[in-house]
From TrEMBL:
Gene3D superfamilies in alphabetical order: Tetracycline Repressor, domain 2
Gene Ontology MF: a single term: DNA binding
Entry superkingdom: Bacteria
Residue spans binding DNA: 25-44
Alphabetic keyword roster: DNA-binding
InterPro entries: DNA-bd_HTH_TetR-type_CS, Homeodomain-like_sf, HTH-type_TetR-like_transc_reg, HTH_TetR, Tet_transcr_reg_TetR-rel_C_sf
Species the sequence originates in: Brevibacillus choshinensis
Lineage: Bacteria, Bacillati, Bacillota, Bacilli, Bacillales
Cross-referenced NCBIfam families: septum_RefZ
Keyword Translocase applies: no
Listed transmembrane segments: none
Domain HTH tetR-type: 2-62
Descriptive protein name: Forespore capture DNA-binding protein RefZ
Amino acid sequence: MDQTKMRILSAAAKLFDIYGYKGTSVRHIAEEAQVNSALISYHFQGKQGVLETLIASYFDTLFRLVEEQEIEYRDAPPYERLEQIIGLYLRFQCEHAPITRLIQRELSVESMLAREVLTLYISRWKHGLSRVIEMGITSSEFQPVSTDRIVLAVISQMTYPFLQAQMVRQVYDLEPYSEEFALWQQASIMRYLRACLLDA
């Protein structure tokens, strides 16, 4: 991707995080990126195209990393595979905090874009976690459980702090974008999974 497109995407990510998608104009993005606003239409067909590119790039990168990790840990026990994949998701969210927060905001609003993201990306995210849990159930390494309910609880724990970052900071005095918080989240989620999947 050329430097102009990268500058536009970087500027948009910053402004969308601060002002929200609706509160950011093409002119604001162009000023932040120090480009002519016509280039945004040329490269992305407008603000909506910038948003869609940011989201697609985020998930394409995430799923590429997940696939690489799955190859590395394909012979590991299911619980270890779950621990690795959850750790990867949490680190990725922290490293891409503005886009993570933007995506969670957009998913909280009923829209065509939200439905597309749910269909294309969130369903795939859910499937990746579900598959590892179902493998553990099939091999009798995990207790028989409702996979959907377990995955819903896990994904909720992972995403809520990004949707409510200000509340997490002000009410709980925690920094949801920090590595320390991600490690605490991972340990907490794994305790929950151990109780649900391993403890009799």
